[in-house]
Amino acid sequence: MTDIEHFKHDVVVIGAGGAGLRAAIESREQGKNTAVISKSLLGKAHTVMAEGGIAASMGNVNSKDNWQVHFCDTMRGGKFLSHYRMAELHAKEAPARVWELESWGALFDRTAEGKISQRNFGGHEYPRLAHVGDRTGLELIRTLQQKIVGLQQEDKKISDDYESRLRVFAECTITDILLAGEGEDRRVAGAFGYRRDSGKFVLFEAPTVIIATGGIGRSFKVSSNSWEYTGDGHALALRSGGTLVNMEFIQFHPTGMVWPPSVKGLLVTESVRGDGGVLTNSEGRRFMFDYIPDVFKEQYAKTEEEADGWYTDPENNKRPPELLPRDEVSRSIMAEVKAGRGSPHGGVFLDVSKRLPAETIKEKLPSMWHQFKELADVDITEESMEVGPTCHYVMGGVEVDSDSAAAVGVPGLFCAGEAAGGLHGSNRLGGNSLSDLLVFGRRAGMGAVEYLNNLDDVGAIRPSVRQQDVDAAVEAALAPFNQVEGENPYTVQQDLQDVMADLVGIIRTGDEMRSALDRLAELRVRVANVAVMGGREYNPGWHLALDLHHQMLVSECVAKSALAREESRGGHTRNDFQVMDPNWRMVNLICRLGKDQVDIIKQDLPWMSEELISLFDVSELSKYMTEIELSQLRVPEGAV
Hints:
Strand order of the largest sheet: 7-3-2-11-18
Number of strands: 22
Strand content: 15-25%
Helix content: 25-40%
Largest sheet: 5 strands, parallel
Structural class: alpha/beta
Radius of gyration: 24 Å
Shape: globular
Distance between the termini: 66 Å
Number of helices: 19
């Protein structure tokens, strides 16, 4: 019989990035015994790669900013496919979450008046991103981590045990969410996984699980995502009976490093453009003026002079097109490269050296200066950078209730951060990710606590893990060791990344995605037969063999959703359906796990409340909505 470590908690949080830590803090502060599961070491979450800042309408730099403007910017950025209630809560609560971080010790950059400094970013009308140089994500994680330690120190005084009510399990991976009951009574009972260093299995009994596992970027060949981002949470929710929403929308950040090959895809923060960096092609021309979409023409500068003037006089000039939403900039860069006007290594040039003095660049963008100097031997204070699109973020994710972050269809399961879908619609604005994980990380913690309290109030017996489910999880985890002539998991992952990058990448067609689904079906057979050598201790091949099952499931969701949506919108571009179709705006594509495959279901998008829809002018809404929708509006002309 296999030895299994056994733990009991009220709440298990899978993921130790910003969303996971904020959820754990909320759960613990409301008195619940909480476990945090970190796939890597604590403090190494991918959140640290969010360099630019936290979007929150505090109005410290421009007093005209408020939650309504932030809400409108988020809806525009998502091409009006964002779940409006999530966008509303996010815009309203983000400032409080930033001030909360400050009260916990976060050291933000300051304005001359001593307020938290805020910088410009693509798609945001006003300077909105609270920042710490270009290391904001790192400061956020450091602050939340220190808050966790502080809570553990409080517990030590009471119980003489640092981990009596809040315990972190580092280098631990969850492979299964365990359920109890049947039919409508089926609900979360715990989670099963293994320790990455020793290979020992671990069983967590808990009536609530919060998924905060981040994204799916490691299924693509060129990605800014770290190795942990294999879609674990998306797959766990799907296999537990949950649903995923709008998985076709993948954000390719427009500026990743393209040279040298060893660091291709490494992120170049949008702060470079927010602080004045310009994009040029091989002819030295600022090409973004050629690619301003009709829906944004009234908000962006038409000449270089006007764009340059915006940095010093935003009241009388329009924004530079380099600060268009990320999906627009990525497509524009790819168009220049395909037209033969790219840089020597297949990107374009990003230059901030002609905008700012060298010392200012080093002060505002210290990580970028160091990154290019050390990895590419480029001094960004003196010369331009070569950049190109890199798979960065998935807008789709687990379908959740907007207020409680409860996963639809799975009682006891919650989700927050990048793993959750809905907030960002078809495209995420830069800076909204960090405020997202703070706002909805807290809400997921609150939702889990409320669920537990309701369970206890009615005197219900907490669900118990079934031994047969534990045995099945052990068998599945050990399966790669029992394959005699199976494939190397690294070979299979590389082929998966090639398929997703080449056939389900930035520009898509129906024929290519049908081909991708055929290739994915072949890969699914290969994944089932991967083999690993050696024992369970420190065995990365075994770890990848298990991750591949998650990657395959999520990749199928992406490809099927992208094939089904016959339009181009945000992070989904179809070469065979090149326009944004108003008839698709009200459609969410839902992924549900069928008997042998992923099923795609069309679902109506909730209609915005009258208060929120009145924030937009009818002339703007007419660019997105059908005639029937417009006829139902009661929006005064001249609204914001």
